[in-house]
Amino acid sequence: MVLKIFFPQCCNLADSGLLVGRWITGYESAVVLAVIHYPFIPGQVKQYIHQMQAQSGVELSVLGSWSLPKDGQEGMDSFLKDLSTIFPQGNWLQISRQIGQTGFTCEVLNRHHGPDERAHQRKANQKKEEEDVKSDDEAEHEEKEEEDEKVIFVHYEQRKVMLSQLHLIQNGALDPTTDPPSELRQMFQSVACSQPLFFLDKYDDGPLKTTHWQSQGREASIIVELLKQSSVPLCLFITWLLSIWTWICNIRIFSLYPVRFLSSKFSTCVQLSYRTEHLRTISSSNPAVGHLHFMRKANILVSFLVDVALGILLMSWLYRDNHITMLANTLVPAADHVAKELEDLLQWLMGAPAGLKMNRALDQVLGRFFLYHIHLWISYIHLMSPFIEGILWYGGLSACFGLTFALSLLSDMVALLTFHIYCFYVYGARLYCLKIYGLSSLWRLFRGKKWNVLRQRVDSCSYDLDQLFIGTLLFTILLFLLPTTALYYLVFTLLRLVVVLFQGVIHLSVDFINSFPLFAVGLRIFRPYRLAEGVKFRVLCQEPGTALHLMMEINPLKFITVVQTYRTPTYSCYPKDSWLELIKKLFVGELIYPWRHKSTKTD
After folding, report:
1. What is the dihedral sign for C-alpha 501, 503, 508, 509?
2. What are the phi and psi torsion angles at 93 (to 5°)?
3. 178 has which bridge partners?
């Protein structure tokens, strides 16, 4: 059996003393966490270990002794060896290192027998070696014992292991609720949960001195401590503001159906509710439960701060050099230009577009109908032109809440300014859909079939002569009017798709800012060991007469895995159909809504 000892690099040059750590359950492995220096009182060591065990919840114990000989400590090895009777353990590790050597030597005591039986066995083995009478079976047995007592040292960086989070295998091979924790996971958990053990440094006046990653002084930041102290009143203030906002939203007038319907269709209202939920998560007084909850709160906080910073930069650009006035003066001529292009397009459709011969009467009716709507829209734009600059000036203030608010407001303004294009698309789609379904129904009439509404299927049916005659007339009329309707539907659908594409880019930008895990990606870039996918080993030392020494290095998570694991759930935009379903809807004339629905939440 091979005994693996996880040994921290910070203890390689520690003074002689006792090894404090934990035996990993179910495996022939031990994790060394700290070294208690000589001199010490065994009773104080036991009391200290019991105290640390109660604070950390880790089954700490004295694993053995550590010896690094110095001048005046010739008998230290025998003294530390005798301590195995004071600290009874199933196994007692006696690790020693000589000056000038890289490798350690390890002797395992009390592994299978008591100390007296072990000493008696050693004496018997010495007598057998002096007699030099050994059989082949005995030689093979001793070789097996030597192999059984083989020790491998796995060196690790204690600080990185304590701060890292080991992730599960992503392919679903392991289930943390059913499978027992692996040896590596228990090792990481032992180091992470033993933080109270690392608070004792050389500046403490206690009777015990230890060596670990913080033995030269605790790692801390004044800025972090000040932020922790100031976060409590700030969270209370945010909670108070959110309670006022919740009370305003619960007013009865905002619960009416028209108000709720309109608020669910405006991107600004959806983003406002989304940020409100984020602020509730950040300002919660309850501590984060688990690593994922902590990372979610950190990602939301960093995303919110970056969003506000980008919004302030946008607002500073808008209110500098009179950019708002320039935008207001450009908006009305741009709307007139779009209306003029639509009029030219309708005039082209009312003639012979691309040499196609259209139904003259229907073509003129549809063209004049749409031209009337364009004239109404131009009148509305000119009526609102004196107030556009004020609307832009006050709307630009929303950027102080974040860039996502400004983008959401831009999406709503685009939706309002292109409302006439949406109306054209709806009119054309409804008329085209009516003719498509009418033709399909009349086509079933020719084949002697009908649609059974109750059973949702096509059944056979017998029609009389009058029904077939009327059906033939209607089918002929709809078939010859279909090209004219289909052309108008095609043109306005393409215009509508351009607007939807522009709004879709805005919505994707907003969702990207809301959901992208900036904090997790920052950890992956600057501290990749914090997000561990696994470990790798390399040979550190393999000197003759010493045990095998391996160096454990942390493999960081891949960037795509970091984004998929820590991405904040967000409200996606409609439609969520596949490309095939989208093409089918466009072909039959069903409406495509790009609105965002709060009920659709995706990870």
Report:
1. positive
2. -95, 125
3. none
308, 392, 409 from 397: Cα distances, Å? 12, 9, 11
DSSP H or E run through 601: strand 596-602
CB 406 within 8 A of CB 398: yes
pLDDT at 201 over 80: no
Assess contact for 106 and 95: CB atoms under 8 A: yes
Query: Of all helices (H) and strands (E), which one includes residue 94?
Result: strand 92-96
CA distance 375 to 342: 11
Whole-angstrom distance, CA of residue 528 vs CA of residue 572: 30
**3-state SS class at 150:** coil
Phi, psi of 512 (to 5 degrees): -65, -45
Helix/strand/coil for 8? strand
The string of DSSP letters for 363-428 reads HHHHHHHHHHHHHHHHHHHHHHHHHHHHHHHHHHGGGGG-HHHHHHHHHHHHHHHTHHHHHHHHHH
The DSSP bridge pattern shows strands 29-37 and 17-23 to be: antiparallel
Torsion-angle region of 10 (φ positive above 0: left; ψ -120 to 50: alpha; else: beta)? alpha
* Other Cβ atoms closer than 10 A to 436: 19
Q: 176: cis peptide before it, omega within 30°?
A: no
Every domain of the chain and the residues it spans: 1-115+149-215+526-567, 317-515+573-588
Nearest to 94 by CA among 175, 30, 154, 162: 30
Partners of 67 in the β-ladder: 96
CA 388 to chain centre: 40
Q: Which residues pair with 6 in a beta bridge?
A: 31, 154
- Which backbone phi and psi does 100 adopt, to 5 degrees? 95, -10
d(CA 573, CA 505): 11
C-alpha 299/C-alpha 285 separation (Å) is 17
Give bridge partners of residue 66 from the DSSP assignment: 17, 95
Nearest to 194 by CA among 399, 342, 52: 52
What does DSSP assign to residue 353?
G
Quote the tokens at residue 125: 């083995």
Q: How confident is the model over 229-287, as pLDDT tens digits?
A: 777 777 777 777 777 877 777 776 766 777 777 777 788 888 888 888 888 888 777 77
Cα(525)–Cα(557) distance, rounded to whole angstroms? 10
From the number of C-beta atoms within 10 Å of its C-beta (0-12, 13-18, 19+), residue 255 rates as exposed
Helix axes of 465-515 and 360-396: crossing angle, nearest 10 degrees: 20
Minimal CA–CA distance to 275: which of 459, 185, 403?
403
Encoded tokens for 112 = 């299978």
pLDDT in tens, 445-482: 877 788 877 887 888 888 888 888 888 888 888 888 88
Provide the 10 A C-beta neighbour count for residue 482: 17
CA 241 to the chain's CA centroid: 28
Question: What's this model's pTM, rounded to 2 decimal places?
Answer: 0.76
